[in-house]
Structures are given as C-alpha cells and as structure tokens.
Amino acid sequence: MTSILTSERIKLTSTRSPLWCAVLMVVTALALTALFGLLANFAFRTYTTNATHGHINADPPYLHNDAAALGIMGAPPIIPGFGYILVMIVAALAVTSEYRFGTIKATFLATPNRALVLTAKAAVVAIGAAVLSAVLTFVSFGILVAIVDPEPARFLGLGHDQRVFYGVPIFVALVVFLSVAVGTLLRQSAGALSLLIVWPLLVEPIIQAFGSWGREIEVFMPFENALRFLGFTGGDLPWHWNQWCCLLYFAAFVAIVWAAAMYVVRRRDA
Fold it and tell me: Which residues on neighbouring strands pair with residue 64, listed in sequence order?
C-alpha cells in the first residue's frame, strides 16, 4: 500500500494542474476573506447609523466563525464555493487524465487490485486537500480577527462554535472521494467536471424555486445536507434530522457512488 501511495503522490505532484489549482485556491480564499471582512465593517457601520435614526428592520450583522470558510465553501446561494470546486476538479482529473492518456492500463497492470489503486489515488488527493483547506480556514480566521472591528466580531473567536475548523476538512475529503468515483464512472474530463460543478451550483439551487414542493425535496439533496452540517444553509427548511445526521447522509451518498465506481471499474476494461 505504501508503494501505491508513493506512486500516486508522484503522479499528482509531477503535473502542473494540481499546483495551479492550489495556488488559485489560496489566492481566492484569502482575497475573499479579506474583502468580506472589510464589507462586514461597512455593513455594521451602516446598521449603526440606521439604528441611530430609528431605521432598524433587521438583526445586527454580527460575524461568526463560519465566515472563515467563505473562500472554500462560498456563501450559498450568492457566492459559489470556489475552493471545494477546485478540489473536485483536481480529484476528477487525477482519474480522467489517466484514462485520456492511456496510462491507467499500465497502472492496473502494475497493481491488479483496481479498487486499491483508486483508493490510494483518492486518499492522496484527500489528505492534501483536507490539510490545505484546514490551513486556509485558520489563516482566514486570523485575517478576519485582524480586520473586523470588535463589535461586529463579537461572536468571532475560538470560544464560539468551532465546527468550521474540523467540518470543512471532512467535507473536502468526502468530495474528493466523490469526484474520483464520478471520474471513474464517466472516464471523461468534460462529462465528470460538468456533472460535479453543475450539480451543487445549479441543480440543487434550482430545486429551491419550486416552492413548498422544492423545499420538501431540497432536504434530501446531498450537498444541501453537507452545507447544513457546516451551518451555511438550510435553517428554515423542513429537516427530518439534525446537523450531524446531515453529515452522515452526505457520507452515505458518497459511499454509494464510490461503491458503484469500484464495481464498475472491476467489470469494465481499462
């Protein structure tokens, strides 16, 4: 297993696309966090001015710890999650590129256990992406603490909800396994990337437009459950389970897609 992991690590680090995606993820995450911190100060000053004149029609715009994951998870449904979308692109390309250039045949000849190869490939990407997302979340948290004024940052601190610090790496690791599974099933970069990007950014948000019927369906959507676990969405939906069950629901969805990919990769020719 160690040799397979080493082989997959060398494959991943010997190409430029993972490096460029990582750089883009870092720049996007930190820039969005800094911009959001400045906007939070402006929003709170505006609220204070309106409150002084008696024009109060909403709660104070306090900032919470989940804002530290803005660059990775986005702010649904307004800002898409650029960070985890880039992670899914890298994970899917790790498989589809091998099918595209035919190197997957040599890989399976060297290691006949195909499920083990794909598990090692997903594990290498998942560990790297989870570590990077955890570091970015902590750095973004530090940026917010440094930029945001004390009053809007009243609920920003390690003494408050810390779910974002461990929830984001867990979510990122799961989407890596999901992306590798989808790439294995479809074998084509265009098809796999289209499905992985369109599903969370277009298909699930569109369901919200179908009124009460859409709200009943939305609670069963996998990414909606993952976002609810992290506290990013779904507070007013008719949920049938709590936030931790939402994480288990998303993990079960990933496990089903992964099992289908492992079954298919054993049955089909490389």
Answer: 155
Sign of the Cα pseudo-torsion (14, 85, 95, 137, in order): positive
64 — phi, psi (to 5°)? -120, 170
Q: Return the residue matching tokens 């609920």.
A: 155
Q: What are phi and psi of 79, to 5 degrees?
A: -110, 120
Helix axis angle, 114-147 to 2-13, nearest 10°: 60
Cβ contacts of 148 within 8 Å, gap of 6 or more: 37, 40, 41, 63, 156
Tokens of 12: 């991943």
Distance CA 104, CA 95 (A): 8
pTM above 0.70, yes or no: yes
pLDDT in tens, 61-90: 788 888 888 888 887 767 778 889 999 999
What is the separation, in whole angstroms, between the first and last Cα of the chain?
21
Whether 91 and 183 have beta carbons less than 8 Å apart is answered as yes
Of the candidates 222, 126, 209, 134, the one whose C-alpha atom is nearest the C-alpha of residue 173 is: 126
What whole-number distance in Å separates Cα of residue 118 and Cα of residue 132? Answer: 21
Please state, in angstroms and rounded to a whole number, the distance separating the CA atoms of residues 174 and 251.
7
Amino acid present at 229: F
- Could you count the other beta carbons within 10 Å of the beta carbon of residue 117? 21
Instruction: Please tell me the distance from the alpha carbon of residue 122 to that of residue 48, in angstroms, as a whole number.
Output: 49
